Amino acid sequence: MGELAQSGISHNEYRNWVFEDGELDEAEFFDMSPAGYWGYPQPEDNYLNESYDMSTACPACGRGYVQTKPYLIKGRPRFGRNDILAINWTYEFLVAERLRKLLLDAGLDGADFWELTDIKTKTPVPGYYQLLVRNELPPMSPSTRFRKVRLSGDVEPCQCGRLGKALERESEFGPVALIKYRRSSLKAAKDFNKTKEWLSEGFDSTQRKIVSAGVRKLFLANEIKSVRFEPVIIEN
Predict the structure, then answer these.
(1) Which domain, by its residues, includes 71?
(2) Pick from 122, 100, 101: which is nearest to 42 by CA?
(3) Beta-strand pair 111-118/124-133
(4) Residue 1 placed within a domain
(5) Per DSSP, what are the bridge partners of residue 96?
(6) pLDDT 10s digit of each residue in the chain, 236 long?
(7) 3-state secondary structure at position 146
(8) Is 11 part of any domain?
(9) Residues linked to residue 86 through DSSP beta bridges, in sequence order
(10) Chain mean position to CA 36
């Protein structure tokens, strides 16, 4: 890294946890995050007002909005061989018909499938859907560690807690914090859930997706890729 700095090359460093298969197989819930992206919600300069109810948003940072209408997109998604990708800016998951059918046949709950709408024709885009996670969990365990972050430029963390807050993953002693929940907080958890907390993701913030072991098993059995699973720590 020092050599890059000396050469005048700016860079960002990202680190991820790595777990053994046995460790993952023992977990009950997972933080499911994107490992691939496609497209942007439309119109690019006004997609929030087009698809979200902004009356619930924080007047200072604008976060806390609730989606009330399907995304408008430009053309047919290009997923290649993927069955699931996230859309840029909002980090929401988009799924192809094959995965939608697998999830419905398995009876996994906590999410709906919204049709995507072509911005030009205002008609549904066949074969692709947003995986809209409905169930919101209670706050994480108090032992979950967070840190304040600047997202870009001079943007400061907001007092509402929805912007500029991230999981703390490192300290001088090494990796420290994953998402943690008290078991009592997961009594009403479904297969698909979202965190009450808004956490930093790239240059924005979003509610993270917490899924059951059943979701991971289905993904593995059907070779569904382009997502990452990190185990959630459950405290009794």
Answers:
(1) 16-235
(2) 122
(3) antiparallel
(4) no
(5) 128
(6) 566 666 677 655 545 555 655 668 889 999 999 999 999 999 999 999 999 999 999 999 899 999 999 999 999 999 999 999 999 999 999 999 999 999 999 999 999 999 999 999 999 999 999 999 999 999 999 999 998 887 766 678 899 999 989 888 655 444 545 899 999 999 999 999 999 999 986 668 899 999 999 999 999 999 999 999 999 999 98
(7) strand
(8) no
(9) 37, 93
(10) 11
> How long a stretch of residues is the chain?
236
pTM of the model: 0.86
Q: Which residue has the tokens 């993270």?
A: 208
Q: Are 225 and 82 in contact (CB under 8 A)?
A: yes
Domains in the chain, number: 1
Q: Which amino acid is at 229?
A: F
| Geometric angle at alpha carbon 13, from 205 and 93, rounded to 5° | 35
DSSP string, 39-76: ---BSTTTHHHHHEEGGGS-TTT----EE-SPPEESSS
Alpha helices in 76-204 (DSSP H): 97-106
Number of continuous H segments (helices) and E segments (strands) in the chain: 5, 17
